[in-house]
């Protein structure tokens, strides 16, 4: 199954200056639990925003840069090549950024979204989730607290048949 996983603001904002716009420890924990042991597909800028590769995951990096290398990672030129290098019988996760989400939403089976209940000034945005195509199957609301500045909801969407 091809799964997009993303934290998205109410105005579809994802990030600015190659960084996230919020810090939600429970979302990071959920991301780690869901993606550990799997192939994760991302654009080069997303990969470069990490201090180091994420442990216990196979990184597939999409870039148009010729000769780009990242130790221990698979580098490919496009989304179709990224999907092709992943095992066919396992879940794979698309983790960003905005351009990669836009290219892959039409190829995906499931969306794991953390909806951050605020709008942000951003330069990268998530594509529209068309409810004619996607069915919301699960929602878990989380209130802001001392470690989370914003309310947020874990949402799962499945592609309608």
TrEMBL record:
Pathway listed: Cofactor biosynthesis; tetrahydrofolate biosynthesis; 5,6,7,8-tetrahydrofolate from 7,8-dihydrofolate: step 1/1
InterPro entries to which the protein is assigned, alphabetical: DHFR, DHFR-like_dom_sf, DHFR_dom
Keywords recorded for this protein, A-Z: NADP, One-carbon metabolism, Oxidoreductase
Keyword Transferase: no
One Gene Ontology term, aspect cellular component: cytosol
PROSITE patterns: DHFR_2
EC numbers on record: 1.5.1.3
GO biological process, one term: dihydrofolate metabolic process
Top-level lineage group: Bacteria
Boundaries of every DHFR domain copy: 1-159
Annotated family: Belongs to the dihydrofolate reductase family.
Protein name as it appears in the record: Dihydrofolate reductase
Organism the protein comes from: Flavobacterium cellulosilyticum
């Amino acid at each position: 199954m091809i799964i997009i996983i993303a934290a998205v603001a109410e105005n579809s904002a994802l990030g600015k200056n190659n960084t996230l716009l919020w810090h939600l420890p429970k979302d990071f924990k959920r991301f780690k639990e869901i993606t550990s042991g799997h192939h994760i597909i991302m654009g080069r800028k997303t990969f470069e925003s990490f201090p180091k590769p994420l442990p216990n995951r196979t990184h597939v990096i999409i870039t148009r840069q010729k000769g780009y290398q990242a130790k221990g990672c698979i580098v490919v030129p496009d989304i179709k090549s990224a999907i092709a290098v992943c095992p066919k019988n396992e879940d794979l996760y698309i983790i960003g950024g905005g351009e990669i989400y836009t290219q892959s939403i039409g190829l995906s089976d499931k969306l794991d979204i953390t909806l951050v209940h605020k709008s942000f000034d951003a330069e990268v945005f998530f594509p529209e989730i068309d409810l004619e195509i996607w069915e919301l199957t699960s929602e878990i609301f989380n209130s802001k607290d001392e470690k989370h500045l914003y309310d947020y909801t874990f949402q799962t969407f499945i592609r309608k048949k």
